[in-house]
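tool=predict chain=A
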Amino acid sequence: LLLETGVYAMATYVDANSDGPYRSPKGAQIASGKIPTLKHGFKLDEKIMREQMILAQRGIVDQTTNNILLDLLFNSLDKLIGGNYNSLAYQRHQAVSTGKLELLDANNPQGIQNITFDFKVPAANVTTLAGNYRWWTDAAYTTEGSSSNPLADLVALIKAAEDAYAPFAALEVSKRGFTRAMGHSKMLISIGYLYNPLAANDTAAANVARQLSTEQMRQILSNKLGVEIRIIDKLVAPERYDKATKKIVTPTMSAFDEDAWVLVPDGELGTIKAVQPIVMQDPAARLALFDGGRTLITQTFNAKQKVQYVESEMSVLCVPNRVTQMFYLNIK
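tool=predict ok
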């Protein structure tokens, strides 16, 4: 299993001249064909410093004022860069699992919305189940389609790719999507018979499958399909204001579409298109470039108000260039 942990709030897509939102301790209009700009930042003010100093005075943290400030700056910058990486991971996984990147309230609540970057996956490469052939017919994944047959659908996906002479190397699926599929009653029966062809009946086969680990089920299914199954365990968290609780929240969600199974080719699937940030020389600011010049970090001060700002900006887009070799099964 591919495991990634430590969820930082993703950066926000904004207009090139707009501020990004400040994270708790600066949205965007994009013309067709342009690279989106992502920004976010931290505001370190007197209140935050005093809170940290009180903790130090009470012995909760053993630091000098200077070290407290350094740690705040380091942790803030680490979260901004980590959020940028999460944004890139989300772009990649959305591009692969849906063939597009959509900016919506769910993933960009503080920025621009209803914008789609479509990477033009051929319609012939996409199979979307309908009616009772869907693995589940309700939003809660409690009602299985009466005509659903997960294993047969996956076998058909492999055959479609082979008939098109697609050089696929792996079948990618989200962790939640895989776990959910392994609990489907007909998948349990199929896995059970694959593990023990002599199972007395469907009930016995399903009971056999329930005793298997996730890794065992993955390997059995992989052997049957003849392709590596790559489970994507990546969570992201957009930061938003919850009106009900009047608090900043960062709800987590899967970066990879949970209803998609995607055959992908070996090697690189595309490129990261980036625009070097414009740097305006400001004697009152400290500037630094990160990731080979792709990310601009800016630190500015307001001595009178005792506030300093740490901001991150990058204009990037993960663009797949092998979409004609990718094949999709959308299970509902």
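Confidence is low (pLDDT under 50) at residues 1-6, 25-32. The radius of gyration is 24 Å.
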